[in-house]
Amino acid sequence: MAMNDDIEILAVEIANAARKSFLELFKSGERFYYCTLYTTGEGHAPSISAWSWEALEREAVKQASRSNRSPCEMANLLKWSYADSPYCCFGEENFTAVYKCFAQRPYMWTLEEDEWQEELLLRLKAMELALKKLANEELFSLNQPRDSICIVVEIMPPEAINTQIALRLNDPSSPAFQQWLEEAAE
Questions:
Q1: Are strands 47-52 and 150-156 parallel, antiparallel or unpaired?
Q2: 21-56 pLDDT per residue, tens
Q3: CA distances from 123 to 148, 151, 153, 164 (A)
């Protein structure tokens, strides 16, 4: 099977799972400014995370009450953190088919360095293609204009490739994307 076929198969499964999860999340009616598919440098199956302005305000107030920071300071710290979002791993139950597809891929720890990088890039390309498909369906325009939301594929901990992918997924003039570039890009 060709590499492009592998990417397309993974992308379809990831898009199906992410679509279900984001649609469930967007039923809240909140205004989202950040949606991500993230993985680790080991190329694990992705999960979604997201932030809405409403969730950021709630979480900043909650976290500030437990610290010596103001809600505004806390919001600035939390704003682009996939892990601190109350929506981290949202809809994980929708990713069962994705886990199966990733389990059928080569085991990363058995690969040589160059094979590892090639496999990781294949997985990232599939994730990027999945988000591109959802963006083309206008999924990210449901509760807000598309240019008010930054969509990204991310490796955690952050690597420079995150910015390269984000540049391909977002309109460079988008206000949300410009904010992400200024505040969170690697």
A1: unpaired
A2: 999 999 999 999 999 999 998 899 999 999 999 999
A3: 27, 17, 11, 15
Residue 155 bridge partners (DSSP)? 39
Check: pTM over 0.90? Answer yes or no: yes
Residue ranges making up the domain that contains 21: 3-183
Tell me the longest C-alpha to C-alpha distance in the chain. 56
Neighbours of 137 (CB within 10 A): 11
**Separation CA 141–CA 122 (nearest Å):** 27
Q: Work out how many domains the chain is built from and give that number.
A: 1
Q: Is it true that the peptide bond before 71 is cis, omega within 30 degrees of 0?
A: no
Find where tokens 């040589």 sit. 112
Residue 155's nearest CA partner among 23, 9, 42, 54 is 42
Look at residue 121 and give its three-state secondary structure: helix
